[in-house]
Write a structure and sequence with these properties.
51% strand, mainly beta
């Protein structure tokens, strides 16, 4: 979970740069909390490993980072 602002987009990529999922935060409540069910845009379970994210929030800016999924 990560706090994001209304209207923001979070793109999640594999280490090779393939887009795994795009999350769009449209709720104006929940204090900007965004959850992900670990399902790809193709409906598959994600594999364990390292992923990168790019968040773009209107009026706030952009942020990139990485995280790991450990099963």
């Amino acid at each position: 979970k990560e706090h994001t602002s209304f209207g923001s987009y979070k793109n999640i990529f594999t280490i090779n740069g393939k887009l795994v999922r795009t999350l769009e935060h449209r709720a104006s409540h929940d204090d900007g909390v965004e959850s992900w069910n670990l399902i790809t845009k193709d409906g598959m379970d994600v594999a364990w490993g390292t992923y990168f994210y790019h968040v773009e929030a209107p009026g706030v800016g952009q942020k990139t980072g990485k995280f790991a999924i450990i099963r």
